[in-house]
Amino acid sequence: MEPTTITESAFVRVVIVDDTPLVRERLKALLHADAPYAEVVGEAAEAQAAIRLIRDTRPDVVILDLQLVGVSGIEVLRAIKLAPHAPVVIMLTNLTALEYQITCLEAGAEFFLDKSFGFEQLPDILRHLARKSGPRF
């Protein structure tokens, strides 16, 4: 049975990858205020730095934009999904055309959200993932 509340020990480790500092700050503020079960363990603005950060920190979840400095977020997605314990990837982007959605989902993204309204969905998605992962010791 799923718990009704999330204990402090049930959490998800999150990396934010977006090339816009304001978006990264907004995401961190949102998670701090509305998702206390999510711990931001790093952030990156460009593709190669993001791949290194994700490999080094091994987060549970990556919030990833499609438009990055270097290569596209799709390339980052493909690279990180090769890891044995690949993180859950939430694509959060302004590029919401159907072909991008299909490409991202086929490459392994579990979620694809439009930045226009997707921010509001993040706390619920992360809550679900925290419950699913259970307590950490």
**Tally of alpha and pi helices:** 5
Number of strands: 5
In percent, how much strand structure appears in the residues? 15-25%
Principal-axes shape call: globular
Mean pLDDT across all residues, rounded?
89
User: Sheet bearing the most strands, described?
Assistant: 5 strands, parallel
Task: Tell me roughly what share of residues is in helical segments.
Answer: 25-40%
Spans where pLDDT lies below 50 across 5 or more residues: 1-8
Short note summarizing the structure:
This protein has 137 residues and is an alpha/beta fold. Helix content is 39%, strand content 20%.
Secondary structure blueprint with pairings:
Elements: E1 12-17, H1 21-34, E2 38-44, H2 47-57, E3 61-64, H3 73-80, E4 88-93, H4 98-106, E5 111-114, H5 122-133
Parallel strand pairs: 1-2, 1-3, 3-4, 4-5
Helix pairs in contact: 2-3
